[in-house]
UniProtKB/TrEMBL annotation:
It catalyses: L-arginyl-[protein] + 2 S-adenosyl-L-methionine = N(omega),N(omega)'-dimethyl-L-arginyl-[protein] + 2 S-adenosyl-L-homocysteine + 2 H(+). It is found in: Mitochondrion. It is an enzyme of class 2 (transferase). Keywords: Methyltransferase, Mitochondrion, Transferase. Arginine methyltransferase involved in the assembly or stability of mitochondrial NADH:ubiquinone oxidoreductase complex (complex I). This is Protein arginine methyltransferase NDUFAF7. InterPro entries: NDUFAF7, NDUFAF7_sf, SAM-dependent_MTases_sf. Its main location: mitochondrion. It comes from Loxostege sticticalis. Pfam families: Methyltransf_28 (PF02636). Coiled coil: none annotated. Its EC number is 2.1.1.320.
Length: 437
């Protein structure tokens, strides 16, 4: 049988079986992102319900997952629905205690920048700007130092729309939301004409010469908690008991986080408890690369340690320590910053092209006093209008430097461009005793 006949037979078999098909299409209009709104608080499930449902569906969750939900949930997240800083909130920060704190930081940045050059134009980038108080105090210093509105722009990294509004109200004479295609989601101008931009991610901030400030920022980033058992490292997870209450449990097997995160030098030594924040390490690395490649300085100020602690996860409510697993969303979740890990993330490693010179950490009392804070204190006291005001200024300063209060618990660390090594050898960093490499 030739090929033509074979095709003729196949056509006779196939053609009758071909049927006409009709399709019905429903036109679906893609929602406009500009018109999308978050559900109202009344209709949104509670954080406890969200967490418990996640555990029921997927099993125990990591502490990092728990922190991420509690901190960033769009409607019920801790920073999303209320102003939490200050005497009426759950904690208070150094800039809220005394204007001197922010002024000293402004002077420090300016003095260190003079070792590099004029430092204009200047981007000031703050991660987690709180109520905007620190930035207000720094801008006051820059105004006295002769910076004009076209010399400076502010770039604030903030994920909470609630805190963003607090900052905008404090800093700006006018402010507005931007188009969804814009890298920044909000913008404004100060009364002197300085442009202010808000971002939800450091990666979106322009890559230019900048001062980077991270004050009490790293302590709220999610951590993984680990414990060393006889058969190796295990991860601490969060589960639900028979009564419906959240509790900690040890993973039966080695989790993926153990495999990925616990590598030398993080797991070195005889430590049996360890906390690791992948986001902290990633952001420290970003800061190091930005500073080294595009110029500038990064200053980190937070409470923390140098690798000697292992169990620091806790919660604060109304300035008191409470159980982190009770009433999620009502308390500030935090963990001490491991400055040793930040150093490892930012310092040079094999094949690195961009890395930072890391100095510190030093205790807050040492940093402030080496930066001549007592001279500024005396000026403020001399200009006080009453003895009562003088005492308040003095008490606020003592709160910052007293070893039993914030003086030793809070620490400072700075990142410089690697090319600054010869300069810093001759002119050691202000506020830091010696250069550590």
């Amino acid at each position: 049988m030739n090929t033509r006949n074979i095709f003729r037979m196949c056509n006779k078999l196939i053609i009758p079986s071909i049927q006409s098909r009709s399709y019905g299409y429903k036109v679906i209009k893609r929602p406009d992102p500009k018109t999308l709104k978050m559900p109202s608080p009344e209709s949104a499930p509670s954080l406890m319900e969200i967490i418990k449902e996640k555990i029921r569906l997927n099993g125990p969750i990591t502490v990092a997952e728990y922190m991420h939900i509690v901190i960033t949930n769009p409607t019920e997240g801790y920073y999303m629905k209320k102003e939490v800083i200050g005497e009426a909130g759950d904690f208070i920060t150094s800039p809220e205690i005394s204007q001197l704190f922010g002024e000293i930081l402004g002077i420090w940045f300016y003095a260190e920048t003079q070792k590099m050059g004029p430092g204009k134009p200047l981007n000031i980038v703050e991660l987690g700007p709180g109520k905007g108080t620190l930035m207000v105090d720094i801008l006051r210093v820059l105004n006295r130092l002769g910076y004009q509105s076209n010399d400076v722009s502010l770039h604030l990294v903030e994920v909470s729309s609630t805190m963003q509004n607090v900052q905008a109200t404090r800093l700006c004479i006018s402010h507005r939301a931007t188009d969804i295609e814009s890298p920044h989601n909000y913008e404004g101008e100060t009364i002197s004409g300085i442009k202010v931009y808000w971002y939800n991610d450091l990666k979106k901030v322009p890559y230019e010469f900048s001062w980077y400030i991270a004050h009490e920022f790293f302590d709220v980033l999610p951590i993984h908690k680990f414990q060393k058992k006889e058969d190796g490292w295990k991860e601490i997870l969060i589960d639900i008991d028979e009564t419906g209450k959240l509790y900690y449990r040890i993973s039966a097997k080695e989790t993926q986080s153990v495999k990925v995160l616990l590598r030398p030098p993080l797991d070195s030594g005889d430590r049996t408890e360890l906390e690791v924040s992948p986001r902290s390490l990633g952001i420290a690395r970003q800061l190091a690369q930005r500073v080294d490649q595009y110029g500038g300085i990064a200053l980190i100020a937070d409470y923390g340690h140098e690798g000697e602690k292992g169990d620091t996860f806790r919660a604060f409510h109304k300035h008191k320590v409470v159980d982190p697993l009770e009433n999620p969303g009502a308390s500030d979740l935090t963990a001490d910053v491991d400055f040793q890990q930040l150093r490892i993330a930012a310092s040079k490693a094999p094949s690195d092209d961009n890395f930072a010179l890391v100095v510190g950490p030093v205790q807050q009392k040492d940093f402030l006093e080496r930066s001549q804070a007592r001279i500024r204190l005396q000026v403020l006291m001399d200009n006080a209008k009453s003895e009562e005001e003088r005492e308040k200024i003095k008490d606020a300063y003592e709160m910052l430097v007293d070893p039993q209060k914030m003086g030793e618990r809070f620490k400072f660390m700075a990142f410089y461009p690697s090319s600054m090594a010869p300069i810093l050898e001759k002119q050691p960093p202000l506020g830091f005793s010696t250069l550590k490499t």
